[in-house]
Amino acid sequence: MAFRVVRTAQASWQGALPDGSGRIAVGSGAFDGPYSLRARVEGGARATNPGELLGAAEACCYTMSLASFDITRIALKIVGEVPGVDHDVFADLARQAKNCTISRALAGTEITLEASLETGS
Q1: Which of 83, 88, 73 lies closest to 8, judged by CA?
Q2: φ, ψ dihedrals at 91, nearest 5°
Q3: What DSSP string describes 55-83?
Q4: Higher pLDDT, 70 or 57
Q5: CA distances (Å), 11 to each of 65, 67, 68, 117, in order?
Q6: Measuring CA to CA, which residue among 53, 19, 24, 25 is closest to residue 37?
Q7: Confidence of residue 31 (pLDDT cuts 50, 70, 90)
Q8: Which pLDDT value is given to residue 93?
Q9: How far is CA 73 from the centre of its chain?
Q10: Distance (Å, rounded) from C-alpha 86 to C-alpha 50?
Q11: Environment class of 36 (CB within 10 Å of its CB; exposed 0-12, middle 13-18, buried 19+)
Q12: Are 85 and 74 in contact (CB under 8 A)?
């Protein structure tokens, strides 16, 4: 008998890619911490990165494989506040970013995207 399990996570990002950083939290509360490009390429930072998280996810998934654990769909929802960028440009940038390294690694899984833009107050 198949059943559907839904899990969530949230990520935020501030700044330009080289010097920016973000925070990621999983819905269960088991992990909440920083991530950055510097942690990905320089090492030594007290932050994680998408590759490290994917490696951890693969290790967990692999060890759970006997329980028929399967990921069949990922739904991305992005809300941005980007000064000087209109909705159409933001939506196009969001679609382009969906081709990131991790999305390509998960190519066998359906990944949907919903992008919206908030206007600053």
Answers
A1: 73
A2: -60, -40
A3: HHHHHHHHHTGGGT----EEEEEEEE--T
A4: 57
A5: 27, 28, 28, 16
A6: 19
A7: very high
A8: 92
A9: 14
A10: 28
A11: buried
A12: no
Contact 83, 48 (CB under 8 A): no
Rounded to whole angstroms, how far apart are CA atoms 102 and 58? 12
* CA 119 to mean position of chain CA atoms: 23
pTM of the model: 0.73
Tell me the Cα Rg of the chain.
Answer: 16
Q: Name the β-bridge partners of 116.
A: 79
Provide the token pair at 70: 């399967």
Residue 11, strand partner residues? 24
> Residue holding tokens 């320089």?
42
Buried b (16+ CB within 10 A) or exposed e, 88-101: eebbeebeeeeeee
Q: Which ranges of the chain does DSSP label H, i.e. alpha helix? A: 37-41, 50-63, 87-97, 101-105
Q: Label residue 84 left, alpha or beta by phi (over 0 means left) and psi (-120 to 50 means alpha).
A: left
Task: Record the tokens describing residue 24, joined without a space.
Answer: 């990621």
| Tokens of residue 99, six digits | 């081709």
* Cα angle, residue 12 at apex, residues 41 and 82 outer, rounded to 5°: 105
